[in-house]
Every structure is written in C-alpha cells, then in structure tokens.
Specification:
Length: about 425
Amino acid sequence: MTLRKWRAPSEGALGLALAGAGLYALLRDVPFWNAIWYAPAWYGYLLVVDATILAVRGRSFLFGERRRLAAMLLWSIPFWFFFEGCNLVLHDWYYVFTLRDWWASVVMSAVAFATVLPACLFHAELLEALGAWRTASCRAIRVGRGTLRALGAGGILSLALPLAFPHVAFPLIWFAPMGLEAANYREGRDSLLRDLEEGRCGRLWRLLAGGLWAGAIWELFNFRARCKWIYAVPGFEGSKLFEMPLAGFLGFPVLAVSAFSFFSFVQTGAARKGRRLLAVLAVVGCIAIEVGMQRFTVRSRRPLLGELSGLDGGSVAALKRAGVATPERLVTAVERSGIEVLSARAGVPADALTRATAQARLALHKGMSAPVAGLLERGGIRTVGELAASEPEELSHRLAQLAAATGKQPPTLAEVRVWVRAARASGGRSVP
C-alpha cells in the first residue's frame, strides 16, 4: 500500500485516538483534562470526518485544501464570537465550570470556537463526496436588484430585531450572516443565491442536513462535559434533548447556511487590504467580547475541594492522599464506600465529610459551583432534594438578598430555574 493510501486510515485512527483520550479523561475524572474534553473530542471527530472524505474522493481539507482549512479555523473564531457578542444581550446560553485561569480560559475559547465553521461545513462536504443531492434541481429564481436589497435588509433586521426585542425575536439572530449572500452574489464569490438562480439546490440541502448533523454532535459532546454551555432560552426550558430544547435544533441548519455565507465573504473575492482591515476589526471585536463573556456569560469555574464547607486544609490534603482530589471524586467515593469507610481511610471526621459531600452534590448540580452551593446552604437549601422543592422565583429573590449582603454576584433567575427543573426531573439527585 502506498503512502497516499495510508493517509485516510492513519488520519482516522489519529482522530479516534484523540477523541478516545478526551473521553478517557472525562470518564476517569482526570483533573484539568476532564474540563477540556470538548477540544480533543471535536478535533478528533473532525479528523475522522476528513479522513472519510479523503477515502471517498481522494482529497480532503487536510490533504489537498490546507490553506482553505487554515482560513476556516481562523475565521471560525470571530464568526462564533459574533454570536457570543449578541448573547451578551440575548442571554440565551451561559457557560459553567470553565477553567480557573483566565488566560487558559481565553485560549480554550479560541480553540473551541475554531471548530465551528469546520463543524458546519465538513458535513456538507462529506455529503457531497458521498453523492447526496449532487444532481438535485429546483425551479430557478430570478435575482434582481430588489432581491439583493431585500436580502441585505433582511440580514440587518435579523441582527437589529433580536437585540432590540431579545425575548421575542431571538431566533432571527442565526439568519443575520445570510445578509452577506447579497455581497457574495454581486462580487462573484461562491453564492447559494447564484446556485438557486441556476436551478441548483444540492449545496443548500447538503448545508441544511450537515448543519443538523453537526448540531446533534455538538449537543452530544456537550451533554456530559464538565466545562459546558447550558441554554436558558425563555419559554424553552423544557422538552430538551441533551441540553438543547427540541425546537432549538432547527437553528443548526440555519447556522450552517450562515457559516457558508460568512466564509465565502471573508475567504474569496476581497482585496488583500480589505481582508487585513477585516482581520484587525475581528481581533479587536473578539477581545472585547471575550472580556464581556468572562464577566457575564461564564457563570461558574471548576469547583475545588478546598471550596467546600467543612473541609479545612488538613482535610483536603488527607482526601487527596486517599485519591479523592476533586468534588466529583468525593461524591463518587462516598457513593461507592459510604461516609464511614471514607472517613476511616482518609482520616477525616465523618461529620465534615457528610457536610462537604452534600455541598459537593449541590456544587456539581448543573454547573452550580461551590460558592453558589454555599450561598444556597446559607439560604436553607442543603440538598438537591430541598432544591427540587423550592419555587424558582422565591429562591432567586432570597439568593439575591444573601448575595447582596456578602458582596457577591447573585445567580440569575434563569439559572435558578435550570437548577430547580433539573432537580425535579432527577427526583432530587444531582445531575451534571
């Protein structure tokens, strides 16, 4: 077998190994690495998809289109930061258990966001390689000046209306980058509008299907992750698959089409000077939005044993010597052997372990964090079962008063609703 024939299976094996290493770190609860499992999972998965494309058609993004791939990874970061910036107004999702070091968290954001465009476009490319909708046709549309103006205006309105009326118009934000299709068409770039003008709809169907496919993988990888996002879309708190409200999956096909329009706009047709200016603006915008995200969208950091009530420095050190280095491992150890056995093994008083374990369960519940679990404890909520019996609005008000008295940032009503709903759905058991 020639070296070229070895490329696809080797790339696929590397992808599986990378994703497997991330999964091992998550399941074995390896500190730090369990919090960044999303990165090896997605990059490993994308390597497998790329290897499949290579095996089917003989070339892929990594082997044949590396410059395009590099551009895709880089431009993916400002593409997703655009939506993160909008979310500072919309408040449709938030992040929990992010890395405690600020710079490490920033790097992790860039690494994770770099996968968004590939996730949207790789699946469509794979479907094309497999022949899906390759000859699909539709009735040709007439594209005139009015159509282009309407499309551009639609993109502007899809941005302005959600920001002005976030509680009712929030779904429109995913359509905003499609307004770039008008510029793509005028400038002769790759354009879905031109496809439809010529009666070709295969690429559109592949993007829609690929976007839904990518969305399913996104939510699957996110579901059991430590560092993860949680949705707080008003009116859609229930009927979820993984963390995503069922209706929310309709947004992924739209996101894939927007991703195509955006990448076509920034990758081709523009003058070098224009791309440089766009890149500078993108960097400045990403930095500003990252600061806002760390302040408002990131709601909790990875919990530490030392943050749990009842455990002093000596108890924390003793637990670590006994192989219990994190709140997650504390809960697991207690569930496996019981408080008394762990107390004897680690040399930590049973009453201290009992209190710390109850608070750890709260801290781990939907990414709540140890400081918030301590706040709940001061508010009379010591177990997930007691949380399930609470009314979100009353509890949110109580926590806001306690936080104000201690000078801490209170949880939002949306967060409290997520916690209470999950506690009720689990029958009073802690859920990640």
